Amino acid sequence: MVVAAETLIEEIKNDFCHYLRQGFRPDSLVAELPQLNIEDVETLLNVHFLMTDSVQKFVERLPERLRRIKTSTEKRRESLRGQVRGQIRWGPTLTRRCRSGYRDPSVFVCEQIEKNYNIAENLVLKRLLFELHDIVTANADILAQHPQWLAEWFGAEQLRKKLDQGWLKNVHVKQIDLMENYEITDRMIRATCNSRKTIYKEAANLLLQHQRIMNYILSPNEARDLLSKTIVQPEQGELLFELYWIIKIIKTFEAAADEKIEFKIIGPNQSMLAEWVMNGSTYRIYHNTVEPFRFFVSLEEEGDEWREAAPDSFFHRSGKIREKFDELSERLFDKRPGDSLWGGRPDIILTSTKLGSERPSQVFIGEAKYTESSDYARQGLRELIEYMAFIQDESGQKAYVDQRDGANSDAVLNSPRVQGFLLTDHIDYSQKSSDSIQIFSYGEDGFGARMRDFVRYKL
Length: 459
Description:
Elements: H1 5-22, H2 27-30, H3 41-51, H4 53-60, H5 62-65, E1 72-81, E2 87-88, H6 90-99, E3 107-116, H7 120-138, H8 140-143, H9 159-169, H10 171-175, H11 186-192, H12 198-214, H13 220-230, H14 237-254, E4 262-263, E5 272-278, E6 281-287, E7 293-294, E8 296-298, H15 299-302, H16 305-308, H17 314-333, E9 340-343, E10 348-354, E11 362-369, H18 374-390, E12 392-393, E13 418-424, E14 437-441, H19 447-454
Parallel strand pairs: 11-13, 13-14
Antiparallel strand pairs: 1-3, 2-3, 4-5, 5-6, 6-10, 7-12, 8-9, 10-11
Helix pairs in contact: 1-13, 1-14, 7-9, 7-12, 11-12, 14-19
């Protein structure tokens, strides 16, 4: 059996927390979670907050607890003519009448006791309800997909309905005015943590917990829960395995780097995770992307070379297959033929760029296979070799990286500019290295030393 997902999580949870604090944002990995439709780590953390037992228990008890929230009282006096509201204060009433010469006996000074809902504890409580309602509303489409671990929000108890009733309909909560220049300070929240009433104490602690999580400060146990409830699904084993190796690679170079590893806050459609400087070069690691290269071969690029090949050659017959497929696809299915002969997207790309240069001088392509099967590993090896053979610069068609600077055809799959590494579970290999490809297995001794030696500049 392959190594258990729980074992992988236990191994990386501390480093995962550490790197999150430093800026590690594996958005490209999160975006691959099909059952969530989540595109970034920030959204994942918000949804994770809703999944915590403490939040769900708080919302579950909310309707009953909101019936007995605290208020302060204020006495307010006012002079009224011809009406009485509250208690008549006869002393001030007679004084007021005396000043007017007792000409108006309908004057009364009344005192009313008013409830004040805008005390610190209530403001903290309403701030938490606002945050929870905002998360649920902003991620309604995600929550509506009913993944099993969010069933509490849509099951028989309907936590979302209870939250809506507390936020939108509760008469007491409506009286609490967050908009009247009341700033919810950290000091106010921390003071509320010491409240004698459980609802306020829990609300304050949950607010602090949410702030900490959204600042990417997770405990190892929180990281374990986050990974196990999202990435650890049957169809996501490969993703967790990729995350495991990415963290292992980054950790390998953390101590050897000349400068502190800089994690990138990446934007849409960007997948660079981190960069560091070592031995006169800048290294950058990417996940699940073709950046900053091109992994695509089009029919147009190949022209009519296949037609000129011998009719009994594989190349000629492959071209005829593609030609017939395009013809029938357009005629029978009204689908315009595509232009792709080959395309791919590696799991991991590690580039090395000399300081002062903009173009990577070396690229290391990684393919991860979460398997103990030698057949599946061989499939990964074939994919890796294809990536190495077809990788091109972004500059244009057929700008193959291994053909730079006038290199001859012998450089194909034999160039120090393009190296590959295969990452697998426990598999017995007769050997783990060749001139341009290295194989790394889960749990092997000396991984760090081998990886550092592998990427040492060879040009």
